[in-house]
Every structure is written in C-alpha cells, then in structure tokens.
Amino acid sequence: MLISDMVVLDLDWQGQKLTIIKETDQLLRRFGQIDTIKLNPKGRVEVFRSVADEIWAPMLGRADFQLEDQREESPSKGEIVRLEITADDPKAILIPFGVNCTIGSAEGATLLRIGTHEESTHPGDRFQIL
Asked: Quick one: which of 23, 26, 78, 27 has its CA closest to 57?
C-alpha cells in the first residue's frame, strides 16, 4: 500500500533533457525552492516537514526511500513504504507533509529536492544529512 497523498511520478528523458515539473502540472505553483543534495556512500538524509510537501528525485546513482506516515487523520497512519529509485529509471516522489522520510544510498547519490521553502521554517521540521 502506498501512503495516502504520496505520488510517484515517472519521468521521461527527452533527448538530454529531463523535466521534473512541467508548467501544466498543478504541483508547479506549490514549490519555490530547489536544492541539490549529495549523499556520500552509505550516507543518508532524514526529512520531516510538518506543514509542506516536498518532491525528491535522484539525478545520479540510486536512492532508497523509507517513508512512515505519522499524520493522525491519515487513512494510512503508521504505514511504512520502502522504494528504490535510480537515476537510470528516473522517477520523482512527492512526500506529503507529516510523513517521516529517510533517504539512503549505499554507493552515494545526487538528489534533487524541490520544496516550498527552506527546511526548519516551521516548528517540527527536521532536515539532517548524515
């Protein structure tokens, strides 16, 4: 089962260009910050947003996502989902607010993070690269 409100988007290369969010996507108006996160081999990043959704996509390498729905009113509360996403088969994942996420990479990876604002803007936000 997927976590309620979580979305995994298939991404397609058009020649040498990979579009993450298109002008026609409803998601576009919700996001205003883009970061590139580099994970060292066996590295991980821990993310929890109390108010805002985020989109993550690997640009280089492989990333292992573990998500846990911590939202009290969610139909998938307590549900844990594990996904492996590689840059060779590009996908982006929308992680809803209130969902705890750990992203790891055995070999190292470069990830694209699209958010509405800087981490730690709201009480309860967590963002740590380990």
From this structure: 27
How far is Cα 123 from Cα 108, in angstroms, rounded to an integer?
30
Mean pLDDT score across all residues of the chain: 85
**What span, in angstroms and rounded, lies between the C-alpha atoms of 67 and 81?**
5
Strands (E), 19-79: 33-39, 43-48, 54-69
Alpha carbon 114 to its chain's center = 8
Q: Is residue 99 part of a domain?
A: yes
Domain limits for position 64: 7-129
* Total structural domains within the chain: 1
Q: Is the pTM of this model over 0.90?
A: no
- Position 11 confidence tier, pLDDT thresholds 50, 70, 90: confident
